[in-house]
Write a structure and sequence with these properties.
By secondary structure, this protein is an alpha/beta fold. Helix content is 20%, strand content 10%. Strands 1-2-3-4-5-6 form a 6-stranded parallel β-sheet, with no helix packed on it.
C-alpha cells in the first residue's frame, strides 16, 4: 500500500470503516481525539504527534507503528499489538492498558503519570517507560453477580428466620 498523507479525520474514519486497515498511512499530527479503533490493522502507520487523547484502541495491530510524541492521554488500549512500536516522547498520562503486547517497543521519554495497566509485560519492551504504570484492578465479570447472589441469600435467610420466630 502506498504511503498517503494529508488525510483529514473524516477520511481516516471512512477508510477505517470501509477497510479496517490503516497500514503504512501517514496520519502524523492529525486530531483523532476520542476516536474508537476496534479490530484495526495499522501496521507501520505514522501517528507521530497525532492527538489520540481519550481514544479507545482495542484488538488492533499497531506493529511497528510510529507514535512518537503522540498524545494518548486518558486513552484505553486493550488487546492491542504494539510490538516494535515507537512511543518515544508520547503522552500516556492517565491512559489504561489491558493485555497489550509491547515487545521491543520504545517508550523512552514517554509520560506515564497516572497511567494504569494489567497484563502488560513492560520488561519485554526495547525501552520500557521510566515510570511503569500502576496496576489496573480489573473486576472479574462474575464478581458482581456473586455478590448480588450472596446478598439475596442473606436476605432470604433473615426473612426465613423472622417468620420462624413469629
Amino acid at each position: 500500500m502506498e504511503t498517503e498523507s494529508n488525510l483529514n479525520r473524516a477520511e481516516v474514519e471512512a477508510t477505517y470503516k470501509q477497510k479496517r486497515d490503516l497500514s503504512e498511512l501517514n496520519l502524523s499530527t492529525l486530531d483523532l481525539s476520542g476516536i474508537r479503533l476496534l479490530g484495526l490493522n495499522a501496521e507501520a502507520v505514522d501517528l507521530s504527534q497525532a492527538n489520540l487523547s481519550q481514544a479507545i484502541v482495542a484488538g488492533a495491530n499497531l506493529e511497528g507503528a510510529n507514535l512518537s510524541d503522540a498524545q494518548l492521554n486518558e486513552a484505553w488500549i486493550a488487546g492491542a499489538n504494539l510490538e516494535k512500536a515507537d512511543l518515544s516522547g508520547a503522552d500516556l498520562s492517565g491512559s489504561r492498558w489491558l493485555g497489550v503486547n509491547v515487545s521491543n517497543a520504545d517508550f523512552s521519554g514517554a509520560n506515564t503519570a497516572g497511567a494504569q495497566a494489567s497484563a502488560v509485560s513492560w520488561s519485554s519492551a526495547k525501552v520500557p517507560p521510566e515510570e511503569i504504570p500502576a496496576s489496573l484492578v480489573v473486576i472479574p465479570p462474575w464478581l458482581p453477580a456473586m455478590v448480588l447472589g450472596l446478598v439475596a441469600i442473606i436476605i432470604f435467610l433473615l426473612i426465613r428466620k423472622r417468620r420462624a420466630a413469629a
